[in-house]
Amino acid sequence: MNTTPSAVAAQEQHATIRVLLISAAAALGGFLFGFDTAVINGAVDSIRGAFGLSAVATGFAVSCALLGSALGAWYAGPLADRYGRVQTMRVAAALLAVSALGSGLAFGMWDLILWRIVGGIGVGVASVIAPTYIAEVSPAHVRGRLGSMQQLAIVLGIFVALLSDAWLANIAGGASHLLWLGQEAWRWMFLVAVVPALVYGALVFGVPESPRHLVAKGRMAEAKDVLRQVLGLHSDAALDAKVEDIHQSLKTEARPVLRDLRGPRMGLLPIVWVGILLSVFQQFVGINVIFYYSSTLWHSVGFSEADSFSITVATSVVNVLVTLVAIALVDKVGRKPLLLVGSAGMAVTLGAMAVAFSHAIGSGADISLPGHWGVIALIAANLYVVFFGLSWGPMVWVLLGEMFPNRIRAIALAVAASAQWLANFAITVTFPSLAEMGLTFAYGLYAAFAVISYIFVLRAVKETKGMELEDMTG
Q1: Quick one: pLDDT at residue 241?
Q2: What pLDDT is stored for residue 63 in this prediction?
Q3: DSSP secondary structure of 334-395
Q4: Whole-angstrom distance, CA of residue 57 vs CA of residue 59
Q5: CB 138 within 8 A of CB 23
Q6: Do residues 138 and 146 make contact, with C-beta atoms less than 8 angstroms apart?
Q7: Distance CA 422, CA 416 (A)
Q8: What is the reported pLDDT for 123?
Q9: For residues 375 and 369, is the Cβ–Cβ distance under 8 A?
Q10: Strands, E, within 65-207: which ranges?
Q11: In order along the chain (474 residues), what is the average pLDDT of each group of 10 residues?
Q12: Are 175 and 165 in contact (CB under 8 A)?
């Protein structure tokens, strides 16, 4: 029987109410991530009309925040390693609050783009820091479930954004109609994001710093105090063993920088490439087309504006529910099996959507789905969201938070998250043009990426269920 100090520390660990609460507070960054990226869904048509945008310009106006997100994610790792996870989360909250205010009061397309990029930087920072922080404060046996809180917060943010869009458009009589203080409803869709940004900023003032960051900075007494709170470790032997485990995994390394990620495969370590490709495939299956453009899409194929908003909200509810299922399964079934099921399911449902839209009548933005094909497309889209929400939505964030060795975790996650935002940008900015070419081609392309993602997971992704962070290797 293994009775080493490290084994004793692992055996004593248990999830505390404290770790649940601070993980929830950190995951609120994911809520803002979801809210900020999805809120533009209800405003797309109004922005296009207000500023007279072409399809290409509309795609850029919707997706420009993602360039900011890539920038924020890139620098989040070095900032988190230098100033701490908690301080970096506070910066993200401030950027998101300022962006919401500026976007709501924008007077032109370029002004809107500027504020959307500022908010994107905040989203990018939050997307890196929340999973890193949650993974670093969680006991191994529940780390998957707590890490999935990030994705749950994201889908709740998407749901609340779409619900508020629908509510504001409904009471105004349309997204382009005037609402309070002489401002159009689409502007209020952005302005309401100030509230959760301020709540997030207030909550992160109450969470402790990551014990792994504290050990890296030599603040051992503080690290022990945090470990006592979050892991329920009370004996000095167990605390000392856990701190020593963390210290041993860090002590031979300097503060991580990009050159630490260099390796033999096309210039990077294999584990870094796995993280990058997980991020890219999460976006290349086209999920954010559903959440950024779905109201416009359903409107374009014959549904009323009100019904389009309702369908979009219903889809986001489905996303929340299946994420809850994923949280229940992740530490029982594992990460890899859920990813494989998700890839297979998305390939089939995206293929069904491609077939449905091959029967569309009309061209460009003026199309409709005859007979039962509209219903088939709607069912396929929601089943697609089910498979994504059960797998690639939460599992990628869980894996990115835990799969890298301690010495490179923050910087490797930053690189992977930056790749994710750039992939998101590529998919989002091209969709309006692809839609004008033909939705059959667009959804067929996303289905092909789902098939490739299945092969990638089968061959390259390793299971991390139940492993301690200190045991992760490159």
Answers
A1: 78
A2: 76
A3: -HHHHHHHHHHHHHHHHHHHHHHHTT-EEETTEEE--TTHHHHHHHHHHHHHHHHHHTHHHH
A4: 5
A5: yes
A6: yes
A7: 10
A8: 86
A9: no
A10: none
A11: 45 60 80 80 76 75 80 81 85 91 84 88 84 76 71 81 84 77 83 89 82 81 79 71 73 58 70 90 86 62 67 78 84 89 96 87 65 82 89 86 77 81 83 77 92 94 72 58
A12: yes
Beta bridge partners of 184: 178
What is the chain's Cα-based Rg?
Answer: 22
Q: Cβ contacts of residue 341 below 8 Å, gap of 6+?
A: 387, 390, 391
Q: Is the dihedral of CA 117, 121, 127, 130 positive or negative?
A: negative
Within 10 angstroms of residue 164's Cβ, the number of other Cβ atoms is 18
Picking from 322, 29, 233, 20, the residue whose alpha carbon sits closest to that of residue 145 is: 20
* Amino acid identity at 343: S
Q: How many residues does the chain have?
A: 474
DSSP track, 309-335: HHHHHHHHHHHHHHHHHHHHHHHHH-H
Cβ atoms of 260 and 399 within 8 Å: the answer is no
Beta carbons of 474 and 269 less than 8 angstroms apart: yes
Between CA 99 and CA 195 the distance in angstroms is 12
Q: The tokens of 81 are what?
A: 């390693």
Whole-number Cα distances in Å, 307 to 288, 301, 423, 453: 20, 12, 30, 33
Tokens of 418: 């930056």
What torsion do the CA atoms of 79, 80, 84, 85 make, to the nearest 10 degrees? 140
CATH for 12-207+253-471 (2.80.10.50, 1.20.1250.20, 2.40.10.10, 3.40.50.1820): 1.20.1250.20
Residue carrying structure tokens 């869980």: 398
Residues in contact with 462: Cβ distance below 8 Å, sequence separation at least 6, in sequence order:
336, 403
Query: From the centroid of its chain, how far is CA 182?
Result: 34
Whether 451 contacts 347, CB under 8 Å: yes
Write down the pTM of the prediction.
Answer: 0.69
92 touches 72 (CB < 8 A): yes
Q: How far apart are CA 229 and CA 198, in angstroms?
A: 26
- For position 130, what pLDDT does the model report? 80
What is the spatial distance between Cα 379 and Cα 368, in angstroms, rounded to a whole number?
A: 16
The pLDDT of residue 297 is: 63
d(CA 367, CA 316): 24
Q: Could you give the CA distance from residue 334 to residue 339 in angstroms, rounded to a whole number?
A: 9
Give the side-chain half-sphere CA count within 13 A for 131: 36
| Region of residue 86 (left: phi > 0; alpha: psi -120 to 50; beta: else) | alpha
pLDDT at 469: 61
